[in-house]
Amino acid sequence: MFSLRTSFRFAPRTLPLPLPLPLTRSYHPKVIDHYTHPRNVGTLDKTQSNVGTGLVGAPACGDVMRLQIRVNDATGVIEDVKFKTFGCGSAIASSSYMTELVQGMTIQDAAKVKNTEIARELSLPPVKLHCSMLAEDAIKAAIKDYKSKQNRPDTSALLK
């Protein structure tokens, strides 16, 4: 009787299997630096009239960012900035970089900061641009909150 099992013998595979492509992209050193050593992490007292709080999130990925500013009422200069972010390394790095960028700026200048500036500085890939957009949205929300406490109209929409 003829049997397939005994009639055919398969030679062992002698060709090496192709190596899999890397499944992850490595982060830029600036992202790693801000992720491993984030600047200005913490909170400010949101009940103070000179503190503005911006809370934003990205439903698509689950990143949540809270950014707070303390403004000198006389000069309009951001004297202190704090953040807390729950999200990926790029989101944390974007928050950290934003705090360094806007500290010492006037609220008018801080409202002009664009996500492209953050993305360029941190060399974010296109799939992580939403992280820099969150940081831009957070500073604008914090400025809006601060102005609402001062009974000042929000003029950030006029800057676009």
TrEMBL record:
InterPro entries: ISCU, NIF_FeS_clus_asmbl_NifU_N. One of its GO terms (biological process) is tRNA wobble uridine modification. Its main location: mitochondrion. Transmembrane segments: none annotated. Its cofactor is [2Fe-2S] cluster. GO terms for cellular component: mitochondrial matrix. Residues 27-151 form the NIF system FeS cluster assembly NifU N-terminal domain. GO terms for molecular function: 2 iron, 2 sulfur cluster binding; iron ion binding. It comes from the Eukaryota. It is found in: Mitochondrion matrix. CDD domains: IscU_like (cd06664). It holds the Pfam family NifU_N. Keywords: 2Fe-2S, Iron, Iron-sulfur, Metal-binding, Mitochondrion, Transit peptide. Pathway: Cofactor biosynthesis; iron-sulfur cluster biosynthesis. Belongs to the NifU family. Scaffold protein for the de novo synthesis of iron-sulfur (Fe-S) clusters within mitochondria, which is required for maturation of both mitochondrial and cytoplasmic [2Fe-2S] and [4Fe-4S] proteins. This is Iron-sulfur cluster assembly protein. It comes from Maudiozyma humilis.
